[in-house]
Write a structure and sequence with these properties.
mainly alpha, 10 helices
């Protein structure tokens, strides 16, 4: 019976994978050039990013199910403790909005709600795609065979975060090199933060939310407003540095207290076999 269920699950996953890939190909080759003809260039770019990243995220969601990684439950107990684990990262995400310039009147949001909502959805789609790919599949894939020590788990976090950061090097073709280097660095740090959140909560949707909100608040003034942002406001830079240091200390402390045996919960039935393999070697 269990073998039959696994066979059905495999068939469904393969079918969904093919469906998502086919939808992505059809969109890129045919629909992309026929849809949204009445939209402006900004709206076209945002909508295109939303659709492609949502479909890409769907592909990695299928991979997550196929591999049996247990991160898709949106409500993981204990809920109260998991909320506390998420809060420091949430502060980081919200602080990506230049709050000080906004309050002081040096920045303002000028766009209508339609533009703001489209930006929000686009940022959430990017968060969905990148967290499913780099945390749900790549990090857990690296950690699956090597998690018997805290050092092994740390290596999995660092490797997946470094890969996530380095992927952004492709932006060298459209952005100044200094900005690209900064993007690689803070992307790796955000990746590490989301990795710790995933370890503590076993909830990939919390990572998707945090990642999406970080992108949204960081882009809000640039895409939907005017005035000073992070790079133009020294008080904002100081506040961001202080918050970042505090959050890093909190998550390092939590990681040091983290029960490494709980990582078996990510891998369902495979965990026992993997643990035996690790112990024997």
């Amino acid at each position: 019976m269990r073998s039959k269920n696994k066979s059905v699950k495999k068939t469904v996953c393969v079918a969904l994978f093919c469906l998502f890939v086919l939808a992505l190909i059809l969109y890129e080759l045919i629909l992309k050039h026929k849809l949204f003809t009445t939209l402006g260039e900004w709206e076209k770019g945002m909508t295109d990013m939303l659709i492609t990243r949502a479909l890409g995220g769907g592909i990695f969601l299928v991979f997550t199910v196929y591999l049996g990684y247990r991160v898709l439950n949106p409500i993981v107990k204990p809920v109260e403790k998991n909320i506390l684990y998420i809060l420091p990262a949430l502060v980081i995400a919200i602080n990506n909005l230049p709050i000080i310039p906004l309050v002081a009147g040096r920045s303002e949001i000028t766009a209508g709600w339609d533009r703001i909502i489209l930006l929000f959805l686009e940022c959430m789609a990017i968060g969905f795609f990148e967290e499913m790919a780099f945390r749900s599949v790549i990090m857990l894939g690296i950690m699956e065979g090597r998690r018997s020590t805290r050092k092994d788990i740390l290596i999995s976090i660092l490797l997946s975060s470094a890969i996530f950061g380095l992927v952004h090097i492709v932006n060298i073709f459209i952005s100044p090199s200094v900005m690209v280097v900064l993007q690689i660095l803070y992307s790796a740090l955000i990746g590490g933060m989301c990795a710790i959140v995933l370890l503590l909560t076993r909830n990939i949707w919390a990572c998707v939310m945090l990642h999406g909100l970080f992108n949204f608040f960081g882009a809000l003034i640039g895409e939907c407003g005017k005035g000073r942002g992070f790079f133009d406001d020294i008080p904002t830079q100081i506040l961001t540095a202080l918050i970042a240091i505090a959050v890093i200390v909190i998550y390092v402390w939590l990681f040091c207290r983290f029960d490494i045996s709980s990582t078996d919960d990510f891998y369902k039935e495979k965990s026992k076999k993997t643990r035996i393999f690790i112990d024997e070697h």
